[in-house]
Amino acid sequence: MPSNVIVGLQWGDEGKGKITDLLSKNSDYVIRYQGGNNSGHSIHINKKHLILHLIPSGVVYPYIKCIIGPGVVIDPKYLLIEIKKIESIGINTSKVFLAKRAHITMPYHRLLDKYKEESLGDQSIGTTHCGIGPTYEDKIARVGIRVLDFLNLKIFHKKLKDNLDYKNQIITKIYKREPLSFESIYEEYIEYAKSLLPRIIDSVHEIHDAFQKEKKILFEGAQAMLLDINYGTYPYVTPSSTSTGGVCIGSGIPPIFLKNFIGIAKAYCTRVGYGPFPTEIKSHISDMIRQKGNEYGATTKRPRRCGWLDLLSLKYSCMINGINYLIITKLDVLSELKFIKVCIGYKSNGKEIQYFPANIVEEDIEIIYVDFPGWKKDISHIKEYEDLPKNCKKYITFIENFLNLEILLISIGSERNQNIIKNKSSFFKIFS
Ligand code: IMO
Ligand code: MG
Fold this sequence. Notes:
This protein is of the alpha/beta class and 432 residues long. The chain folds into 3 domains: 3-99 and 200-260, Adenylosuccinate Synthetase, subunit A, domain 1 (Adenylosuccinate Synthetase, Chain A, domain 1), CATH 3.40.440; 104-196, Adenylosuccinate Synthetase, subunit A, domain 2 (Orthogonal Bundle), CATH 1.10.300; 266-431, Adenylosuccinate Synthetase, Chain A, domain 3 (Alpha-Beta Complex). It has 12 helices and 20 strands. α3 crosses α4 (132-140). It is globular and about 65 Å long. It binds 6-O-phosphoryl inosine monophosphate (IMO) and magnesium ion. Magnesium ion (MG) binds at residues 12-13, 39-41, 298.
């Protein structure tokens, strides 16, 4: 049975957690395929707030198998904290599994992430300091420690020794800091290995078997298109393939297994961390949006930068991801505004640019906006699309027409049931 993919189309925090939770109800599997605990996926159920960093957002349903796939980098310390935290609120995690091929984040990765960012000064990326970059660096350098190394502690011991000898040279000689102790890391990690052992699986075979048995599988993206290592606003990106292409790479399946590519975009834009943000708002409106939308990092608690919806970059994201259905989130956040701007193009040196530019970091960009009157009405309890204010529908129709895409669902609040299913026949065809 061809499966569904959920990806973020902006700079992250589009509401992938809420939407995955909502759409996974009838799934047998929810699979994360890239990123690490740099993600913060929020779910609100009956006023309870849950933030997931590594565990797939299907975990709330006890019958769903949740796999942290081979393309993910796993910090076992924070995974175990996350497991404990969600178990403490009564959620069963016995169906959470780790792929043998996933790479492990070690203490030196976290430190190197932090030291490098500090050394870059005003050139820093604004990473989450979770060690994601250094873990992927080791993976590509072919020296990484994988989950399967937890199954053979002799190999783990050797790999840790080799890696730490090298990393300690960087830590002491380049960053002039104290070296890390092999013994304490080894002791700490063999405890993690013991705790995680029952969850380690060969995910490739598990997932292929599931496809054979026609199970319903949902792939949950982390971060988002404009943070993608290849197609994002490089170098202000995360080091993984956040696009739908990353699903195959990060979970070991062929593209033909995938069917519905569901893109999530906020009704405006946010960005946390540094890097280009063409439609960033520099007035009090930014604070209004941040306040109403609770735009603070779920992982780092940093205030998010806020800006107008950027349809040029959204078109680019939809194109690269092959999006066939769009979900718009946080439309309710705009309800208090007198007017709303939407970016429909960029200009550089007075000339209109047709496409989202590869060198956006260096480009001096001017934005072409279209203004919309606000609707000045609380929409957070509306159930039917027809009942939305006229100006609100105008805004939605404009987005659909510009992108030539059908909007499946509009989220109008953080609670699980605060949604308007815009296209019911498509929605129930995909998710029942
Ligand atoms: P979710 O899944 C928003 C950003 C960081 C930084 C850049 C690189 O919740 O949407 P990294 O630690 O990944 O090396 O940092 O990427 N970033 C995110 N921004 N949402 C996320 O995840 C993010 N994960 C990383 O702020 O700018
Ligand atoms: Mg987030």
